[in-house]
Amino acid sequence: MREPAVQGFAGRAAIAGIGLTELTRRSGRTELELAVHAARLALGDAGMPPAALDAVLSYHMNDSAPSLQVARALRLETIGWHNDISGGGSQTASILGDAAMLIANGVARNVLIYRAMNGRSGTRMNTASTGPQEHFTLPYGMAGPIPMFALAATRYLHDTGLTAEHLHAVVAQSRQNAAANPRALRRAPLSLDEYLAAPYISAPLRAADCCQETDGACALVLTDARLAPEAPRVRAVVRGGGPGCSAMDRAPDVSAIFSGTVAPMLWAASGMRPGDVDVALLYDAYSWLVPRQLTDFGLVRPAGLGDFLLARGHAGVNPHGGLLSEGYVHGLNNVAQAVRELRAGRETALVTGFGGSYGSAALLTRA
Q1: What angle do CA 158, 355, 305 make, to 5 degrees?
Q2: What is the pLDDT of residue 132?
Q3: Containing domain of residue 234, as a range?
């Protein structure tokens, strides 16, 4: 494993504002309208006028509003650094590092991050992009991400001895956590019998095992920590990956995901350890990713993992319901929830982003 880079921005950037639109199946609004709405909510939460922004960042998969359009809609007369990053969930945590580096290096003082998408009524995930890999995988039934990650899940369940009952425990706890969240789209309890009676989308994954296709937008405002001394700080961010479930043609382990590589880098870069984390916001695009990340990040020992899940030891993960139950804004809504948790008294939040064998993770701490 390579040595992690020294993170000169540690603690220099703070998340001063968060904004989340209503999450729906059909927004009736353009991605630009959603992005601007979320941005104004985040600016209002930060107590900051749009004119204070000097950088705008976003990530997308050909399904969002460009940063310059958002800047114009916010009536920014001048705009400094701006970037539209091509990528999905793997950017969830790493874009925090991009913003923090701008602030730490004096390039920007206040940075807007947003993700806007009509993920249900507009561009759906299985049509968002087609690259060289898809030309090889489509003939074998890999029509979009679900079949690919279902194949990886099959191997993971085989290797760990986990069963459908354990996947149900993840999903049912997600629903239970979402029950008190008025933003959540899935709040009804899910019994084991109901879960098992549902058909597969791609075995071993049922619809409940997959994150939602959602219309909505989420935005964050990051600022120089000296300007927001009480706001949650960006302590460390790492990204990375290796051969695994998003590169099946050459993967030694198709069930390997980003966390196996990123976790040791995160602890080394931050000087922290798993026991310091008191709330985990894990990218739960599919139910099996929760136990995989719990063990990879050292939050749970592999031995006894099944019993831990059945006993709902993971009840504190994604207390808002996560991507499985609250909604899917490509993971940025999980970051917003991490900020809420820190504002409510938590000390350290782990946030992760997933794109297969590659991804990112961040540690956020109270000031």
Answers
A1: 35
A2: 66
A3: 13-124+211-362
Structure tokens at 122: 């507009």
Looking at residue 22, what is its pLDDT? 98
Mean pLDDT of the chain: 93
Rounded mean pLDDT of 319-344?
98
Q: pLDDT tens, 4-14?
A: 555 788 999 99
Phi/psi at 53 (5° precision): -75, 135
| Cβ neighbours around 116 below 10 Å, total | 32
Counted domains in the chain:
1
Asked if the structure places residue 169 within a domain, the reply is no
Q: At what angle do helices 289-296 and 259-270 cross, to 10 degrees?
A: 40
Can you tell me the distance from the alpha carbon of 139 to that of 128, in angstroms, rounded to the nearest whole number?
18
Strand, coil or helix: 245: coil
Residue 360, class by beta-carbon neighbours within 10 Å (0-12 exposed, 13-18 middle, 19+ buried)?
buried
What's the CA gap between 101 and 99, in Å, rounded?
5
- Model confidence pLDDT, tens digit, residues 216-238: 999 999 999 999 999 999 999 99
Q: Is residue 191 a part of any domain in this protein?
A: no
Catalytic positions, written as ranges = 283, 328
DSSP 261: H
Record the pTM: 0.95
The amino acid at residue 242 is G
CB atoms within 10 A of CB 101: 19
CA distance 266 to 269: 5
Tally helices (H) and strands (E) across the chain: 12, 11
Q: Are 89 and 283 in contact (CB under 8 A)?
A: yes
What gap in Å lies between CA 64 and CA 158, rounded to an integer?
A: 38
List the CATH number of the domain containing 86.
3.40.47.10
pLDDT at 247 over 90: no
Q: Binning pLDDT at 50, 70 and 90, where does residue 241 land?
A: confident
User: Which tens digits make up the pLDDT trace of 50-61?
Assistant: 999 999 999 998
Q: Exposed, middle or buried by CB within 10 Å (0-12, 13-18, 19+), for 25?
A: middle
Tell me 360's DSSP state: E
Q: Is residue 201 part of a domain?
A: no
Q: Is residue 85, in this structure, part of any structural domain at all?
A: yes
Backbone angles phi, psi at 314, to 5 degrees: -95, 15
